[in-house]
Every structure is written in C-alpha cells, then in structure tokens.
Amino acid sequence: MKKEQMLEFIKAVKENDEIKKEFTSLIIDVLDLRRNEFHPLVFINGKPQIGENVYIGLFSEINAKGGEVIISDNCDIASFVSINVADSHKKCIGMETDIERKPIILESNTFVGSHSFIGGDVHIGHNSVVAAGTILIDCGYVPPYSLIVGNPAKIKKGYYLQFQNGVNDCDNKS
C-alpha cells in the first residue's frame, strides 16, 4: 500500500464511525488484545471491580488475576501505570511454590500518576494522590487526602487536607 492510499484509509477511518469500529475490532483481534471498556491498549487481567467515572490511561495494566483489585468511583489512572496483585519473585527464586497475591484498594477520587506501580497489600484512602513514578508495595492502609511519592514510597498522611479551605503552604512562603 502506498503512502497516499494509507493516508486516505486513515482519513476514512477517522471520519466514519462504522469503519472506525470495524478497524478497531480487527486491530484487537490481530494483536490478540483483550477487549475492555477503556481502550484496546489498556491491559486488564482477571476481574477487577472498577467503579463509575474511572479513567485509565493508555498502556496501563490492571492485574487482578487470582486476587482482588477495587478501583472506586472517580479515580484517574494515568498512562503507563501498573496495578498488580501478583508478586512472583519468591516463587521464581525457589523460596515459595505459589505466586503471592494480596489485595489492592483505591478509594474514590484517587489519582495515580504516570509510570507508577501499585503492588499487593495496598489500600489508598479517598482523595489521595500517588505521584508519578511512585513504587507502592506492602504499605497497608494509607489515610484519605494523602500524598504518596517516590521509591521507596513516602506517605504524607493527610497532605491534601491543608487545601480544603483554599490555603496551602506555598501561600506563606516569601
């Protein structure tokens, strides 16, 4: 196919919803992608519980296979995020016979920044932010309005409570 023909085809796909739907279906089948309500390039494994008004960015992975993942309403998960209940490193090096799986819960209105990893035994309270690039594993319960940042993750409990009245610590700096 010549470049001009390809450009005409792409234009036709963009302009015609029926062709776009058929083309998307073919791509999913050819690349052996799993269908989901978010996007063909969001990878969902197992049966996570995903609430209403949730956004999951491209190339993100939600792995709930053999475990529990709950993503509550109004969460925003950026691109290139991995949320994965499975930890196979002990099995791989001969210390365990099974893959370890622990639950992951994101309460409502949680934001997860790009290139973050959330592993098992994590429960993030509502209205919290996981900063871009954060690695969060086995931290247990994180209270609401927290900021979680870094590798290893540092949890700033209740960090966003200071903004509820329109005041932040930057306003008082000279």
Per-chain topology:
Layout: H1 3-15, H2 17-30, E1 43-45, E2 49-50, E3 55-56, E4 61-63, E5 69-71, E6 76-77, E7 82-84, E8 86-87, H3 89-92, E9 100-101, E10 104-106, E11 111-112, E12 117-118, E13 122-124, E14 129-130, E15 135-136, E16 140-142, E17 147-149, E18 154-156
Parallel strand pairs: 1-4, 2-5, 3-6, 4-7, 5-10, 6-11, 7-12, 10-13, 11-14, 12-15, 13-16, 14-17
Antiparallel strand pairs: 8-9, 17-18
What's the short version?
With 174 residues, the protein is of the alpha/beta class. The chain is built from three helices and 18 strands.
Keywords:
174 residues; alpha/beta; UDP N-Acetylglucosamine Acyltransferase, domain 1; 6-stranded mixed beta sheet; 5-stranded parallel beta sheet; globular
What is the CATH architecture assignment of the largest domain?
3 Solenoid
In percent, how helical is the residue content?
A: 10-25%
Nearest-angstrom radius of gyration? 20 Å
Largest sheet: 6 strands, mixed
CATH class of the largest domain: Mainly Beta
Low-confidence region ranges: none
Total strand segments? 18
Q: Determine the CATH topology of the largest domain.
A: UDP N-Acetylglucosamine Acyltransferase, domain 1
Order of helices and strands: HHEEEEEEEEHEEEEEEEEEE
How does the helix and strand content classify structurally?
alpha/beta
Average of pLDDT = 89
CATH homologous superfamily heading of the largest domain: Hexapeptide repeat proteins
Strand order of the largest sheet: 3-6-11-14-17-18
Measured distance between first and last alpha carbons: 62 Å
**What gross morphology would you assign?**
globular
Q: What's the structural domain tally?
A: 2
* Fraction in beta strands: 25-35%
Helix count equals 3
